[in-house]
């Protein structure tokens, strides 16, 4: 995609000098490595008012005036009626910017000064000076994100993982895909109220065995250490791989992989079915950790009790055996093998 860049003062000075020398438009465009149409527009649109000659300083002034007049006037000003309506509906009624924008047009159909798009409301909230009011406004939004922008953009809270070729789920070995061997896990986070707290979930693909991990926060460091603390308690043969989505909380996956001596694979974007075991168990977990609940008060001991309840629940998938019943003989077999080996 080509990008247009406005002429600089130095380029305007060159245009003035070369034009006064009698150089052609195409000659000037080649010298500046600009298109001929850019030079032609600049000369025709910015002629000096006192003569037909081109003046760089006069052209810069005209350009600056046009830029100022092209900007739309600011509608949302702290204290004006539009601001007060938006603030009330956002912070008191918890309406979304889309709902606010739509209702403004409905309530004030003939007052254009009370019409504003939802994008303008978002921009105002995030461009608002730092302080308690900005914090309240952002917390009133459903996602309550401190930044806004498309996923993966510089202005977004969310930067998706870019895995290497060997970490793509398409290159995961058949023994994992077909659930032949134990020790391969699916991981995820379940979020608490206003996305301010979370719990890590790990499900063993062959047995359905669940581990819940206490997380101090959603920071990359806390997520890594939370998963590591729980997985280090597993024997090595049950710690072979983890498959995760591309959430930014896994940004320290190379460190985790090294510390646990475990491979990490990443599912394709927007493909939750590729981690079906984890998606299914998250639905069961919500019986104990409902959506909208603050998860920070739950200790690791509390989470272990919830995991124990789910691990001892019969599953139709396993002919009504429980994950606990399936993993115990695997552990016992490993213990016997180690004992015989020593």
Question: What descriptors fit this protein?
Answer:
342 residues; Nucleotidyltransferase, domain 5; elongated; 14 helices
Short description:
The chain has 342 residues and is α/β, with parallel strands linked by helices. The chain has helices spanning 9-20, 25-32, 36-45, 56-70, 81-92, 97-107, 118-127, 132-140, 174-177, 220-231, 253-260, 276-285, 300-311, 323-341; strands spanning 184-191, 198-204, 210-214, 241-244, 263-266.
Give a topology summary.
Layout: H1 9-20, H2 25-32, H3 36-45, H4 56-70, H5 81-92, H6 97-107, H7 118-127, H8 132-140, H9 174-177, E1 184-191, E2 198-204, E3 210-214, H10 220-231, E4 241-244, H11 253-260, E5 263-266, H12 276-285, H13 300-311, H14 323-341
Helix pairs in contact: 1-4, 2-3, 5-8, 6-7, 10-11
Number of separate helices: 14
* The named CATH superfamily of the largest domain: Ribonuclease H-like superfamily/Ribonuclease H
- Residue share in helices? 40-55%
**Number of E-state strands:** 5
Oligomer: single chain
Q: What structural class should be given to the helix and strand makeup?
A: alpha/beta
Biggest sheet layout? 5 strands, mixed
> What would you call the shape?
elongated
CATH class type of the largest domain? Alpha Beta
Please tell me the total number of domains: 3
What's the CATH architecture name of the largest domain? 2-Layer Sandwich
What is the straight-line distance between the termini?
65 Å
Order of helices and strands: HHHHHHHHHEEEHEHEHHH
How big a fraction of the residues is strand? 5-15%
Detail the poorly predicted runs.
Answer: 151-158
Largest beta sheet: strand ordering: 3-2-1-4-5
Residue-averaged pLDDT: 84
